[in-house]
Design brief:
alpha/beta, five-stranded parallel β-sheet, 23% helix, elongated
Amino acid sequence: MLQAVAVTAVRRDDELLEVHASTGHVYRAHAVLVATGSTYRRTDADGEADLIGAGIHFCATCDGPFYRDAAEVVVIGGGNSGLEEGLFLTQFARHVTVIERSDRLAGNRLLQDKVVAHPQMSVVYSQRVTAFEADENGKLTAVVLENAHSGATTRLEASGAFVFIGLDPNSGFLAGTLERDGGGFIITDQQFRTNLSGVFAAGDVRRGSTKQLASAVGEGAAAAIQIRYYLDETTSSRVSSGAGVGR
């Protein structure tokens, strides 16, 4: 177990795979499982970095209970995740406002109907967050919005903001090595195999994953079983060809 060590590249060298670490060390293996996950996208609005954990969050089920009886909480992003988490937050906050950059919500119709009809929820369209304001104690107090059409700014008071504008896979170090989709997610087959023999991928970094913790854990276990099969097959192949003789 190596702590505070990043992987900078994965390459194949004849029979073995090379894992290049940020320390300069190179580790060799017959198989590699990439399970580097994804990172929540941020708005990059002024004040955001300083308020993460102090009013700005990325998981309603984790941090929603902190806002029990709060007058106003905002959800940034009108996709499925934003709408689902917004509905969940109505268990705690007295009112939830969904902030959507475009002229319409991106979530599925069933979720849209639930949100629009909910008495504790409102949706504002064509708005982007330009700044987060804080009080003297470093806690979120308001969100500053800019209209995408007119450029007019408004200030929405809120004690909590939950950001759901997508995920970026942690796969940049594999560019040019593994096949990825347009969003950077690693492409695998049903056995979690990538285009590079011996390299497997599981969890949020993989295209088609559900981006849920329970699913990621299951994929990791399933990928480990596939790796065992792969190692059994490659070991048998090396022995039958004589490559393992004398080792």
